[in-house]
Amino acid sequence: MQLLKATTALVSITSVFAGQCSSAESALWIGNMEFTTILTQCAVKAMGGDQATANCLKNAYEDKLGDACAACFGQTVKCGTVNCAVLCADDAGDAACLACTKEKGCDDGLDACTGFSQGPPKPLPADANNRNDGKSSVSLFSVTASFIGVAVAAVL
Predict the structure, then answer these.
(1) pTM of the full predicted structure?
(2) How many other β-carbons are positioned within 10 Å of the β-carbon of residue 45?
(3) Burial letters for 48-84: b for 16+ Cβ neighbours within 10 Å, e otherwise?
(4) Residue 129: strand, helix, or coil
């Protein structure tokens, strides 16, 4: 029953907020690892809360990110926190975490809310920081998991 409530809430939110971000706003996150870092910091600071995450992100980008667009990212963080806390607590880049956020609709919810199908780069998986070749393993996958693991770890 709890899962049904969370899923229903996400569906109704994305229906109300569909296409909330402009092209100028999307330029802030598409291919931008700095956006991922700031959003992760906001999610941790907000302990996975949607409104606090959105407010933090909006403040970080001042007049470049509107309330409605920032709310999309806040809702995505909350979706992952509610639905995937256990799987994402240790590593937001973990395959199980990415699969969970996708399965629970967090990724599609963000796409619908923002109006863009490409999110910011996900953070490096925990083991990527130990690479010996000096190369980054950043890729564009699930935006939701980018922020959830760290926020959930702070909550737990």
Answers:
(1) 0.71
(2) 14
(3) bbbebbbbbbbebbeeebeebbbbbbbbbbbbbbbbb
(4) helix
